[in-house]
Amino acid sequence: MTENNEQEKKEETKGVEQETPTSNSDVGKHEINVIETAKKIHEGMKEENDRKAKLLDREEKLFAKQEALRALGGGSPVGQNQEKPKEETAKEYADRILNGKK
Distance between CA 25 and CA 82 in Å, rounded? Predict the structure, then answer.
């Protein structure tokens, strides 16, 4: 029985020794894959942020141009004919008040 126990312990030890290097190497490969994936994601996000910055610049220029056109495009009352409200006669005023119109 003693010999059997010693052989079983050796076999168990061999199994542990064989698994350890394999699992360590797999962990290293997995870490490398994660780092490479993170770098790829980082580059993609950087490119997307650059693209968004360019779009934002274009949008700001467009808003500034629209604001300038609005200011020059006749939105101000200068140079426009303004109609004066029609003056109401005393009779028109009395009719309006008596009929309940405002």
Answer: 86
